[in-house]
Each structure stands twice: as C-alpha cells, then as structure tokens.
Amino acid sequence: MDGILNINKPAGVTSFAAVSAVKRLTGERRVGHAGTLDPLAEGVLPVCLGRGTRIQEFLLDGRKVYRAELKLGEETDTYDAEGLITRRADASSVVRPVFEEALKPFRGQIEQVPPMFSALKHRGQCLYTLARAGVVVERPARPVHIYRLELLEFENPVATIEVECSRGTYVRALAHDIGMLLGCGAHLRGLKRLKYGCFDIEGAVSLAEFEKACRHGYWRRLVYAPDTALLHWPALVVADGLGADVRHGRPVAFEEAGLQGEALSAGHCRVYGQDGSFLALMSFRADSNQWHPDKVFFGVSQENGAA
After folding, report:
1. How far apart (Å, rounded) are the C-alpha atoms in residues 40 and 12?
2. How far apart are CA 65 and CA 153, in angstroms?
3. Which pTM value belongs to this model?
C-alpha cells in the first residue's frame, strides 16, 4: 500500500509511537510521519506508507494551523506544561485588549529563537539532550511566517489562540515570546493541530478508529493517494513513449505539453500516464532545457485514496 494516512494523534502519545502503531497494524515496513507533534499535542499527523514516504519532504512545506492554550504568569524550561516552572509573575493586569495588542508584532515574517528543548542539533547533539544536562547554548533566530494569529478566547490567566504558520514555527516558542512581551511570562498549556497542508482534523482518523478498520479489513480505504498532498502542483499527462522514459528516470523535453508555461513558472510538476497512473515528480533544469524526474513512482495506481 502506497499513500498517506491522516491520523488524529492523541495527547500523551509521541509521533514515533503513532507511526509504530500504524506499522504494527498494517504490516507495512516503510512508514514515516511528516511534521512531528510533541507528546503534549494532539491533532493532524500525516503518516506516509510505502512509496508515499517519498512525499514526506514535500509535505513539510505545507502550512499548518494550530489551536493553542496559553497559561499566563508562568514560564517553564520547555515552554510548555510538561516542563519545570522557572518563573512566576502576576498576570492579573493583562486584559483582553492588552493581550490582543501583544499579538500584533508576531504576525507576518518574524524571527524566532527555537527552544532549547527541541530536536535541532548543536555540534552534532540534539538541543534537548543538552537541555536535560543543564546546558544552554546560543540558538540563532530563524525566519518563520505567521500567516494568521487570532485570539479566540480569553479568561485570565488562560488565552486560546489560533495560529496559521509556516514550516519551522514552534508554537511553544511563540507562547513563550508572547509572555515575555507581556512581562508576566507564559507557557503552552495545550496544543491541537487542526490542519497540515491539505489534511484537516475533520478528515483525520484516531488510532482507535484505525485499529478497528484494520481489524475489519477496510483500512486501505482510509489511505490517500501519494500525490494528494501535491495537487496544487501543475500536472502533465504524457503519452506512453514519454511515460516509459519517465518511469526509467530519464530526462525528457516537454515542449509539446499543454501545461508547459504553468509548469515552467513553478519549476516542478506532477506527471501521469494516459491511464491515470501517477508516474513521477519532475523539476525543470534550465541548463539542459529538460525536465528531470526527482521522484519516480513507477505507475502508482490512483485507485487508493480516501474520500
């Protein structure tokens, strides 16, 4: 089975454990996830199966939407509720208008310093390994984009926000930084991922539901076709002759293709055979004026795909 599962990961379970459960239930050897969710967090976790794992790197670029609960007046070393409280402060003066004003600097393109408790590496070691040993190192700020940041509910000391953000954004760090700006500190009390690229929480299946589907033999109906996450890319349908070249990973010229202009402007495209089979992901290289197969799927059928 080749494709992508939209799993609704429960809080208290690691992303690795969710992947292990899918691997055990399906018997599929190649299983991986895109976009780790912390154990504290719940929500959408795309899990790739078989040749669907070859889509993982492209999934990472998808926008993400989170609903987050912030607890004002307390900072923790992990920036979330699983950490040790490092500072307490009076947050009673923070009212809704004050909190909404504090959100403004975090919209758009911002620079964010990753938390020490993260999987990023410093001189070959994960930051969380250093943090657990009591070592704190400088972390360069990284550009991230906050497309949307809204306050949904406010009842001091808890604020509920919704965040639409780019790859690389740490909502824990966002909560911490908002608290720093307010002066009272804050940490992430709860987090739910509502959307990841084209996958949303309404279409997500819980691990319990997936286990039931496996037990009754209909789990394959829950698997989306591998190209589902890339339907926003230009698509080309090729004749059998060119299709054979694509299947064998050979570069081809597509001057005669109808979507040449659109595909050229994007620099990449999805390629299908005349029978509808998904053949490859290709990119255009100006130096050779040809399209080169980056990922070849050898005619993965479009029959599997949740609806």
Report:
1. 5
2. 17
3. 0.89
Over the chain, what is the mean pLDDT?
90
How many domains would you assign to the chain? 3
Residue 296 bridge partners (DSSP):
280
- Are 68 and 171 spatial neighbours (Cβ–Cβ below 8 Å)? yes
For 191, phi then psi, to 5°, come to -145, 135
Say yes or no: 249 and 160 in one domain. no
Tracing tokens 């959307």 back to the chain, one arrives at 195
Q: Is it the case that residue 288 has pLDDT exceeding 50?
A: yes
In this structure, is residue 8 part of a structural domain? yes
pLDDT in the model for residue 256: 52
- Catalogue the active-site residues: 38
In this structure, the answer to whether residues 71 and 121 fall within a common structural domain is yes
Sign of CA dihedral 66, 71, 74, 76: negative
- Burial class, 153, CB count within 10 angstroms (exposed 0-12 / middle 13-18 / buried 19+): exposed
pLDDT tops 80 at residue 106? yes
Shared domain check, 55 and 83 = no
The CATH number given to whatever domain includes residue 166 is 3.30.2350.10
| CATH (domain of 274) | 2.30.130.10
273's tokens: 């055979």
pLDDT at 169 over 50: yes
Lowest mean pLDDT across 52-61, 193-202, 211-220: 52-61
49, 168: one domain:
no
